[in-house]
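Task: complex structure prediction.
Instruction: return C-alpha cells for all chains below.
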Amino acid sequence: MTDTKTSATTSTAPAGSKETVRTQIIESLADLRAWRAQTGSLWLKGQKAAKETRGGADSPRIGFVPTMGALHQGHLELVKRAKADCDVVVVSIFVNPFQFAPHEDFGKYPRTFENDLKLLSEMGCDLVFYPSEKEIYPRGKDSIMAVVPPSPLNDTLEGAFRPTFFRGVATVVLKLFNLVQPHVAFFGEKDYQQLQVVKALVEDLDVPVEIVGVPTVRESDGLAMSSRNAYLGAAERTEATSLYKALSLVKTMADAGKDVAEATAAASLLRKEEKGWTLQYLSVCHGKSLAPLEQFQKPYVIVTAAKLGEVRLIDNIVVP
Ligand code: PAF
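Output:
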C-alpha cells in the first residue's frame, strides 16, 4: 500500500478530552481494496452474520459515512452513530462533480481537508477515503455507467430543480459501497430525498448495505446545519431561520387539523422577496414514495427548498 498516508496523533490527549486515534488516509482504489481485503470478508454474507460476529477479530462490522467534506456537527453526528454501532468506521471525502450541474457551485464548494481530518481523528474515525476525481472517474464522469433513480424519486422536489443530481448521487454512492463494502451506511435526514434514493438503491439493486437515517442537527436558532451555510452573509444568516420557522408552522397547522393547502399557506414566510427569498418548493409528501399529499397522513414529510440571495437552502420535518 505504497501511497497510503496515515495521520493524526497517538495517546497524548488528557483524560476527559476528545478521543484521538490514528486515522488512516487512503487515496487510491487499489489501496482501499487491499485494506478491505485485510479487514474481513463478511460483506457478501449479509447483515445477520456481520451482527452476530460484531467485535470478532476476523470480521469487524464496518460503518460508512459518505461525505463531501466541509464537515460540521451534522456529519459528526453520523460518525458518532457509526462509532456506537460498528467496530470500524470509514468516512469518505469526495466532492462529487457528477452531482453538480454546470451552473452549480462545484468549483467553490468548501474544501477543508485538514480541518475535516482533525475532527475525524478526534471522533475516533478509523479510515478516511480521500480519492481524486481521476480515481473515481478514470474515463471522466461523463463516460461512467450511471444509476438513474426512478420517478418520482428522481424528478420531483430536488430533482425538478437539479435534474441530474440524484443520478450523480446514486452512481457515486453505489461505487463507494462497492469499494468500501460496509455493513451499514449513515445518511443525514437533512437530505431527505437523497436518503430515500439511497434506500431505494440498495433495495432495488440488492446491495447488502443497511441504511440508517440520522435526524437533522440544528443550530440553536433552528437552522439546519449544512456546509453551504458558510456562504451566508451575516444578515442572511439571521434571515435563514425563516426556513425552519415556515416548516414548523406547517407542522403546527397539521397538528391543529388543517389540510395541506391551508397549512402550506405558511410559505408566505418565505415569499418575502424583499428579504431575498425565492421559494422553490414547500410540499407535504408521503414519507417513503415522496408522492404529494393533500391531507396530512403519517408517515409524511414537510420539505422545502428556497434560495436566500444566491444561497440555496433545503430543510424538512419528518413525521414518522
Ligand atoms: O450528501 C452528500 O454529502 C453527498 O450527496 C454524498 C452522499 C456524499 C454523495 O456524494
